[in-house]
Task: structure prediction
Amino acid sequence: MQPMIKVYLADDSGEKFFGEGPYQLLKGIEKSGSLRASAAEMRMAYTKALKIIKQAEKHLGYPLINRVTGGKCGGGSQITTEGKKLIMQYEQYAEACRNANRQIYQEIFGSEREKTSPDYRK
Result:
């Protein structure tokens, strides 16, 4: 048994708009310079990826990526300054949540876990 949590951001009505999926999309864009490539790497349709990003941007009130339409020189996407800051903040928040979750789990289930482990019966 191990503790597991999902970390996401929601609006005041509880609608989720940013979590691991949008975070991974942004990290992929940061790596490849392309929303299409990031979506493909996640085995996601480009239209779905764009919808996810636009939904997050709507809730946040600022753009996460700058998109350049393809053409002779090709297109691409770049993470905005605000998007980079959100990535950093989400990483810090998610890690703090995971650490707190591990600590709480240990406090509540730690002694139970020891009793059920194979080494306990020796």
